[in-house]
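Side project, low priority. Logging it here so it doesn't get lost.
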Amino acid sequence: MKKIILIAAMKALSAGATAQINFGAHVGGNLANIKGEQKESGTTTKGLTKPKLGFLVGVVAAIPVTDAISFRPEFNFIQKGYNLDVNRSQSGVSIVSTGDGTFNYIELPLNFVYRLPSGDNTFLFGIGPTLGYGLSGKYKYTITSTIPGFPAQTQSGDGHVKFDGKKSSDVPVGDPDQHVKALDIGAGILGGYKLSNGLYFQAGFTLGLNDLDSNPNSSLKNNGASIKLGYMFGKKQTDNLKKNRHY
């Protein structure tokens, strides 16, 4: 009899804990850029790339920690990358560089979120680390050089992005692919607003922390600002907002 009561109590506790967790899904866009630096002979040259808009889709869980704070992990497919559009002059030569790169990632933001009720709705403020893993990617470029009085010279190329972390010295000569590390670590902040019917809007920024480039004299880091439209599934939360502040 005691064993039956204990099993029943454990099931009840488990059911109660599960009922407190909310799940949701979202779609949105990510305005990404990549910060690049090249060091040579004591001089540091920064990359001149511009932001590129990518797609994201994912799921989220809201797990209560306290009445006002929840642990809010996400599991997303997200596109990062850059645009290249540089016009410069060097020793009388006009050089125009254009192109872009797209990196596809599986990403896991691990945010702790503070929930601030506003009537029947809720403001969300969060911070936390982000872990990403590169899946695939591609890039292309065109460089046009013009010397006054001579025909313009154009060079172009494209290739895939390989997340194998190889150094330039380990890549065969003539290999068109770009090789970077697969693991992408960042720090993120977010702000959002959730309606009582479960619909929510969220904006955030992620700062890349680790170097994606395996070469000793250069570095690459991902940065991005995202916006999401999502929905938390389950019963309407209007009557439970004050009791369940973690959603």
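Brief comment: The helical segments are 2-19.
Revisit when time allows.
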